[in-house]
Amino acid sequence: TRAVAFAGPVQGEPADAFATLEAQLPALLADIPEGSLDFEAVTLVWTDPARLAEPLLLRAPRLYASRRVDGAQFSATLLLPARFGRTLFVAATLRHGAHPGAPFEGRLRLAGRGLALASWRQLGLLPAALAGGGGDVTAALQLRDGRVQLAEGGVRLARLALAPPPPVVARRFGATSAEFDFARLAGGGWRWRLRQTPTHRAIADASTL
């Protein structure tokens, strides 16, 4: 395997993707009633007028949610519309900071199967440089003060299309496997690393640009 590292301020990649998630989380958690809930055959509605012409409907055969004064838990396997992929497992354990009403901290885990990257990019949840492709993605995010501090996981994609900012040339690749981690720097910006097999070294090289 090969590790590639970049340190310093990163505008848009991946800062905007994490900011979208950070902005959505408080409202999503506020909708969970206090107490413990265990649902079967639930439909979740994702609305984002700026990015979606119509609400996104996510079906969950089973959903567990719990919210108390000091925090919340949530887990579900979502059946996705075809244009987004097959399934997305989501589990979150979040708690308030120093007092109720303070920003959340905790952990969020995601595991997507057969995801269509272009659709998730349109929601602002993936970097714009991921122009297309599809496959499986796993990620574990650590939050503190209401912000993502660390994200690590892996991808196993059947195909991948990259469209980095000029002057880097857009490229397409076949099967791709990689591990990644993003860490927020204390002084601002991000450090991120991508580890891939030598077969896909060109993708790793492009990530440093």
Please state the overall shape, judged from the principal axes of the Cα atoms: globular
Largest sheet: 11 strands, antiparallel
Question: What is the subunit organization of this protein?
Answer: single chain
Give the H and E element order.
EHEEEEEHEEEEEH
The helix count comes to 3
Q: For the terminal residues, how far apart are their CA atoms?
A: 19 Å
Low-confidence stretches: 1-12, 198-209
Helix content: 10-25%
> How many whole angstroms does the radius of gyration measure?
18 Å
List the helices and strands and how they pair.
Elements: E1 2-8, H1 15-30, E2 35-46, E3 56-68, E4 71-79, E5 87-96, E6 104-116, H2 117-122, E7 130-144, E8 147-162, E9 171-173, E10 176-184, E11 190-196, H3 201-206
Antiparallel strand pairs: 1-11, 2-3, 3-4, 4-5, 5-6, 6-7, 7-8, 8-9, 8-10, 10-11
Give a verbal description of the structure.
It is globular and about 50 Å long. The chain has 209 residues and is mainly beta. The longest helix is centred in the N-terminal third of the chain and has 16 residues, at 15-30. Strand 5 and strand 6 form a beta hairpin. The chain has helices at 15-30, 117-122, 201-206, and strands spanning 2-8, 35-46, 56-68, 71-79, 87-96, 104-116, 130-144, 147-162, 171-173, 176-184, 190-196. Strands 1, 2, 3, 4, 5, 6, 7, 8, 9, 10 and 11 form an eleven-stranded antiparallel sheet that branches. It has three helices and eleven strands.
